[in-house]
Amino acid sequence: MPKHKIPRKSTTIDMTAMCDVAFLLLTFFILTTQFRPEEVVSIDTPSSISDFILPDADVLLLSVGNDGRVFFSMDGKEHRLNLINKFEEKYQMGLTDEQKYQFAIANDVGLPIGQLKQYYSIEPIKRKEVKMPGIPVDTLVGPTNELSDWIYFGRLSNPNVRIAVKGDNKAPFKVVNAVIKTLEKQDIHQFSFITDLEANPNAPKTASHGGGGKH
Question: pLDDT category, 46, cuts 50, 70, 90?
């Protein structure tokens, strides 16, 4: 009796559709990924046991460096554009549309208002060579406390903004206190301090297994 041969079936799988899906996913992540902007000033924050995490959007950040310089940042290009327009309306700096756009796509700013036009006239790659002197701030709401305007116009530009303060470990207490007083002058009593997370000494200890090393 003749043997019947079992026909061999091809094991080749058409991966065209999978490649298309992978390419679409890659394109999606490239277009939607938001890279953290380069920090103008490096800040070594103190540590705490708070595990609260700030949202990625709608944040107005006030930073204080170890040398006492104060910086302002706020996410959202449209919000920043609204912000600089409000400054232009008040101070009549003569900013061009290009200078306003450069401000809108930038990150931290730490300049007296009178220097904004000159700073954003510089090519972006050369701005990194400029050391910002910091935003003028004191405990009084007046001409020497420009930080007050940054906070006020920032909240007008984005009513949903959450305020956070990021101070260096070695930042002068007088300056940090001036920032807090400036917030209080505008009846802002709820804001976040950015810190590094440390182990909670009151947390229940878990038993270690094996090697007997410290955790």
Answer: confident
